[in-house]
Amino acid sequence: MTPQRFQKLQSVINNRQSNLAVILENVYNPNNVSAVMRTCDAVGIQDIYVINDKTPPVKSWGRRSNAGTAGWVDVFQYENVETLIGEVRSKHQLIYASNLKSGSVPVYDLDLTASIAFIFGNEQDGISGKLSSLADINFIIPQVGMNPSLNISVACAVTLYESFRQRMLKGAYVGVNPDVNQVTNLSRRWGIAQ
């Protein structure tokens, strides 16, 4: 491994945000999941949770849209909402759901620097009432056009980059990952353990 490659991998690990995750509910198009994977990697998210209680588990993600990030993020698939939420609650303090329902808060009005898992729903129906009710906050991305929603991968990117912006301002990306277990695990998996 070249010194440059070693430094790049070490930098990526040190900027991972172990207190930030994404949940995708019944997202039908594997290319949308792959695009989300790419955005998660770009902002330092390691864990993506996929709940498929209406569709079969995905066997492969769209190669064009993930640009090789499938090996750099972890995707955990679930078929049971309660099991998924139990796992997410064991690692994250808050769950925020992207939801067009009345009373949802604009994403720009939220503090996105806490320990959060964001839920995004499928292309046709959004998130289910069940997951919406289990969220701590339902949020929207403000829009002024005719169509009230964005593509799932775009909505995720907008949300994650707002979180990225807020976290940058608070110094969360200083190149020192406070999660020692994550650093050790990824260093071993990526072949840079010393």
Strand order across the largest sheet: 3-2-1-6-4-7-5
Order of helices and strands: HEHEHEHEEEHEHH
Structural class: alpha/beta
| The first-level CATH class name | Alpha Beta
Number of helices: 7
Largest sheet: 7 strands, parallel
Uncertain stretches: none
Q: What is the name of the CATH architecture? A: 3-Layer(aba) Sandwich
The CATH homologous superfamily is called SPOUT methyltransferase, trefoil knot domain
Number of folding domains? Answer: 1
Strand residue content: 15-25%
Residues in helix, %: 25-40%
Principal-axis shape equals: globular
Spatial extent as radius of gyration: 16 Å
Report, as a whole number of angstroms, the end-to-end distance.
13 Å
- Number of extended strands: 7
Overall residue-averaged pLDDT value: 89
CATH domain topology? Alpha/beta knot
